[in-house]
Amino acid sequence: MSGDNSFVVVANRLPVDLHTAPDGTRTWTPSPGGLVAALSPVLERQQGCWVGWPGIADEAPEPFRTDAGVLLHPVRLTAADFEGFYEGFSNATLWPLYHDLIVTPVYDRDWWAAYRDVNLRFATEVAEVAAEGATVWVQDYQLQLLPGILRQLRPDLRIGFFLHIPFPGADLFRQLPWREEIIRGLCGADLIGFHLESGARNFLDLARRSGVEIDDAQVGAFPISIDPGSLGTGEPGGVEKLRESLGNPATVILGVDRLDYTKGILQRLLAVEELLESGALDPDQVVLIQIATPSRERIDQYQVARSQVEEAVGRINGRFGSVGHPVVHYLHQSLPKDELRTYYEAADVMLVTPFKDGMNLVAKEYVACHGDGSGALVLSEFAGAAVELHQANLCNPFDLESIKRALATAVTGLAQQPEVMRERMLAMHRQVHEHDVTRWADSFLTALEARR
Ligand code: GDG
Hints:
Enzyme class: transferase
Organism: Corynebacterium suedekumii
Protein name: alpha,alpha-trehalose-phosphate synthase (ADP-forming)
Pfam families: Glyco_transf_20
Bound molecules: GDP-alpha-D-glucose
Strand order of the largest sheet: 5-6-4-1-7-8-9-10
Helix content: 40-55%
Family: Belongs to the glycosyltransferase 20 family.
Number of helices: 15
Largest sheet: 8 strands, mixed
């Protein structure tokens, strides 16, 4: 049982989504996001294969090749799989557990059964398409059992695994009723990659405590990054037009996130509200734009997070806005790449305040759009990106005073110490340019190559 693909990427989602129009016509649209941008160049170079779910339940179209020569191999998931495996175990058990219990994880045996079934199904498909001795790169928390299953089905393969979210400390992870199975599943990989050294250390520590044989070289830290060349092209004059449409405020503050309770959107709104209240920010001079992309909308905790954010936006505008001049501009939409770039370029201060984040590509994208040294980044200490972007205005998102201080310091810094702020932004810009996503993928694959 083997195919003819010598390089295979496996992820929960394919890099394209299948849509069916009311008249039954089907179209594929590229799914946005960092992972696709990160892996597409490597796959294109190697004319590899991508195995994943096409984004629609109960459908598994025939595999096909993209114009760039990448073979897309859809895996079928039923609506029940989607609920148990994806919304349930992946996003209501693992996601909160791995993000340090910002909300309480749900431990449900049926969801676990669905997670195991779907991992087995993915592994079976990969075993069929991978050539003898092929390299398989498994992505993220939805597929942690896959390396172990695949190792049994196909001992000849070279298997890498990369976790895009944080890996928690042993005391939290040990809550998971199926902790042994997950650790053994991951250890089926020749190389297990994390964004940060701390994640790698947490995992080594846990594996050893669980009596699993593992050597230091089987885990490593590979901080992901962005492709600065694919951030879209801002429309000429777009920044001026945008600022004008906002009433030419002195300071534009921006937030861009999936609407997720880990991102600390409510906290940053509360910080802005208190600064307006105390007079440290002037509602006639400041505008906050919050872009909150819809995400995982059927999960209860996401609905709660959304109502809290929307209530705060309404309250702040009610208190401090005036007709035609809201202080907070809130978009619950996904914007085209080119438009997003204009927002990044226009923002004087970028607010990135997650309680916990594997990396946070938004912070790196903002920095990449400020090659002239303009702007300021307020960044949570608990985002993986804080390790590399330590020249940012760092804050503790659990401490409202800390967010307020970082934001106020960024605003006054831009006015009073523009040269210092410029140097800091330029240093971060260099870091992101030198450590881009190609470097991330190459360093992981080189380390994987060296493993067997
Ligand atoms: C996970 C981990 C880790 C957002 N809104 C729009 C839009 N976006 C794009 C951003 C960015 C991406 O989505 C979000 O990436 P993040 O890294 O910030 O966050 P997660 O989605 O939680 O990603 C994270 C990442 O995986 C990679 O390993 O960094 O820690 O949680 O690229 O630009 N893009 C467009 N319109 C929007 O409205 N076009």
